[in-house]
Amino acid sequence: QVQLVESGGGLVQAGGSLRLSCAASGRTLSRYTMAWFRQAPGKEREIVAAISWIGGITRYADSVKGRFTISRDNAKNSVYLQMNSLKPEDTAVYYCASASNSVATLRSRDVDSWGQGTQVTVSS
User: CA dist 67 to 29, 81, 93, 114, 122, Å?
Assistant: First the structure.
């Protein structure tokens, strides 16, 4: 099973940017859909963005379209989430995830490996 380790979270003011990274070990990610989910206190875990194994297909939650960009580097076994124009409502724990499902159908219950999560806090 793959181990996923996120980094790059932190505290940022509204309007600022952060870049999350997810490094994988134990298995190559090149054949898997990769995604970022987030979970705010008292809320369900939701998908933020997903990217196909070849990188050509992406999907974003409506709330982050135009502000977040997901990318991957299969040679480095890594996936990234560039977050711009951050808002207080983006505050959550962000999780890296891998799955065999397609980008279009991926849901949290389909994930086969989760990272430990990284906290993102956006102050107003």
Answer: 25, 10, 18, 24, 14
For residue 17, the surrounding DSSP H or E stretch is none
Give CA–CA dist 96/51, Å, rounded.
12
Q: What is the average per-residue pLDDT within 3-15?
A: 97
DSSP string, 33-99: EEEEEEE-TTS--EEEEEE-TTS--EEE-TTTTTTEEEEEEGGGTEEEEEE-S--GGG-EEEEEEEE
Structure confidence by residue, pLDDT tens digits, 42-100: 999 999 999 998 878 999 999 999 999 999 998 899 999 999 999 999 999 999 999 99
